[in-house]
């Protein structure tokens, strides 16, 4: 029996050494994971499902090392697409890749679509820009790859403005060509009141297990006959943005007030465990626009955008957290800019955000700035 087992092992090693068209590491993995033939004795190795292919049978340690090197070598797009390609090989590769690639909060990089709804870094903002198409009322969010405003960027999100009765809605999608509420790429929406001074942000996914979907007819995504089992059929309110009325028409910029559901730094790590218990892992953060100063020489209101905004516009703004020592984020100093938005061209605007905001939330807030607001200006 022992001699038969050694003979079987010898045949395996000989097949590894004789092959020349493939690498030895790959063949070694394939030889170890292949089961014994029927009638042969010995301890069988568990074979991977046939649908996964031989790439899924790679040793976890070797696979993890490969993904780590690919991730380390792709600091920015387009090199970063190699990390996404690794996650697309099969389910096993996807799980290992997701375990290695860090969130924007830790790495300052956006990799997967899930990153768009995760908080940005704390120390330095993620720099993006928005392109507007006035002809079809569409807005495109790109990740900035360089410091120049001529950068083509990496596409992240798209939004289109619709008129829904007396209200205006912005549908936000991962697909620039499919901006419908019934799409699988649907991420959420923004809805305004009649005057365009109060907005509600809706997420397509519940922010936590047990969250209640908005019950009004206007907040429903689409008719029941259009619902797909793979797509959430509800909208969940995650924030509000309001502009203060300027009844006296006094000189000055728009005044904004935002209330958002955002997880704290500690709660992000505990998110999964709290979701399993049906608890709300997040809290709320209150933001307001940073007050500008009046420049006597230029005779205008000024804010320091540190070179990221080059064109004066009533749409430009900077948001800071209202000072509150009880906030778990530790950012309510009233001075740290969490989101800034400003014009750099006829239809190009920069958008820089950081913790606790996500790219989705920041994009939704910036969309509220478009459009004329007679009651506020």
From TrEMBL:
Domain of life: Eukaryota
Region of interest: Disordered: 1-51
Residues covered by the Tubby C-terminal domain: 116-372
Low complexity bias spans: 10-22
Database matches in InterPro entries: Tubby-like_C, Tubby_C, Tubby_C_CS
Family membership: Belongs to the TUB family.
Listed PANTHER family: TUBBY-LIKE F-BOX PROTEIN 7 (PTHR16517:SF50), TUBBY-RELATED (PTHR16517)
Full protein name: Tubby-like F-box protein
Species this protein is from: Elaeis guineensis var. tenera
